[in-house]
Amino acid sequence: MRDPNNPCLFCNINESGLADENLLAYASYDTYPVSELHCLIIPKRHVKDYFELSTDEVIACNKLIKKIKESILLKDPLVKGFNIGTNAGKSAGQSVFHCHIHLIPRREGDVENPQGGVRSVIPLKQHYKRKS
Question: Which N-terminal residues, if any, form the signal peptide (predicted)?
Fold first, then answer.
């Protein structure tokens, strides 16, 4: 099994796949999608995680997130929401140590109870009751 960090998978746009790009970042559909049209936004410069991005790279990634979101909505009108997230560090679940931001389309009924959304990274914390 190939180590995606040696050489870095995301440093090779051709190997990762290209859905769109701008000067500082590119988008690629996820090889192991959480949902159909799950996309990754990846800075072209090799940086470990989101916290190492320059301000210009954050802006470039954000522009691609918004552009890809619109593209996904045109491709699939059943998409009614999105989760956006990034893993920073091994203990947070990062396995490819080149920053990448997940844009995950969500559809009505794709899970029984979507409450808590990204909180499900710690399953027992996903569902909660609001305090009065």
Answer: none
- Round to whole Å and give the CA distance between 52 and 114: 31
Amino acid code (one letter) for 11: C
Structure tokens at 25: 């970042």
Known catalytic residue at 100? yes
Query: pLDDT, tens digit, for every residue of 26-65?
Result: 999 999 999 999 999 999 999 999 999 999 999 999 999 9
Q: Which residues pair with 20 in a beta bridge?
A: 27
Q: Count CA within 13 A, CB hemisphere, residue 58.
A: 8
Question: Residue 90: phi, psi to the nearest 5?
Answer: -60, -40
Task: Find the catalytic residue in 38, 98, 100, 102.
Answer: 100
Q: Distance from CA of residue 25 to its chain's centroid?
A: 13
Q: Are 106 and 69 in contact (CB under 8 A)?
A: no
